[in-house]
């Protein structure tokens, strides 16, 4: 594992947002969903592609709060421009579990 300096970590803007829309993203190379995440007034709605199809269905994602990086530059993924990186963790079987707050917080809340 490579160590980083605190200043490197401080550059990463982690925010909480609520998934407002989730749909299949058939144009992605690997199975994925296209998500629209609401980060509140200051940041607004952002799009993301998430490879979370093994554990989640689109309907159950609506209203779920997630932790995302919001200060990466936009990235073209097929026909969609991803505007944030929704975070998660790989299980031993390779499936991705979303990183979520264990209690509700306002959309746009920053990492403390």
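Q: What amino acid sequence fits the structure above?
A:
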């Amino acid at each position: 594992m490579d160590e980083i300096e605190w200043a490197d970590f401080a550059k990463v803007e982690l925010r909480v947002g609520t998934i407002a829309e989730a749909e299949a993203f058939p144009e992605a190379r690997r199975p994925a969903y296209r998500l629209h995440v609401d980060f509140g007034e200051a940041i607004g709605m952002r799009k993301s592609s998430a490879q979370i199809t093994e554990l989640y269905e689109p309907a159950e994602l609506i209203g779920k709060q997630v932790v995302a990086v919001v200060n990466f530059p936009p990235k073209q993924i097929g026909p969609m421009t991803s505007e944030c990186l929704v975070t998660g963790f790989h299980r031993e079987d390779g499936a991705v579990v979303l990183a979520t707050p264990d209690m509700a917080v306002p959309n746009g809340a920053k990492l403390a």
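Q: And what stands out in the fold?
A: The mean pLDDT is 96.
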